[in-house]
Every structure is written in C-alpha cells, then in structure tokens.
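Q: Could you predict the 3D structure of Possible sterol desaturase?
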Amino acid sequence: MHHSVIPRETHSNFGFFLSVWDRWFGTYRAQPELGHDRVEIGIPEFSTPNEQRLDKLLTQPFRNDSSLD
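A: Sure. Here are the predicted structure tokens for Possible sterol desaturase:
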C-alpha cells in the first residue's frame, strides 16, 4: 500500500518487518482504500506508455516534472 497513488496511503506503512513503528507514529493502515485487488500503484506522471520505454525509465530519477512530455 505504501506505493499507492493515493497520498494518504503513500505516506503510510513504512515498516518492512515490524508494523509497530507505523502504529506508534500513526502511519499504519490495515487495508488500501480500494482493497488489495484494486489498489493502483506508481507515480501518475510516469504511468503513460511513453514513460515505460527503457530510455525514459533510466532517466526518470534525473528529470523534473517540466521535462515530462
């Protein structure tokens, strides 16, 4: 759920092995809002087919929003 496109889900469930940290800091979520089968993951700006090309995937960490086409 940490990779969901819904911001409040993105900012949750940081603990990999223990959920105690997320429970302690209030970032724990038991279920995705749309359910596990329908959760949408990824970064919307990079979800287009054009952004899935190898050259685009390799340069994504180095580009800012203004360079997206």
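Q: Anything worth pointing out?
A: Residues 7-67 form one domain.
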